[in-house]
Amino acid sequence: MADSKPPTLWQMLHSIVAAAFGVQSHKNRERDFTHGKPAHFIALGIVCTAVFALALFGLVKLIIHLAT
User: Fold this and answer.
1) CA–CA gap between residue 64 and residue 68 (Å, rounded)
2) Distances (CA, A) of 45 to 2, 14, 38, 64
């Protein structure tokens, strides 16, 4: 790969979301493993997981509130 720059924040976020759904492209996965830092992906993955869990929690609370 000629481009040796690390992935941008947007590229890492795209990779994490794509990997979560199981649709990560080979090209992006290769870029992530060769130029990305594992600590960045782990930290961003934890943040994305927390945001997802809080969004689900809020949605359930809203549905329960509207149902009562």
Assistant:
1) 6
2) 27, 11, 10, 29
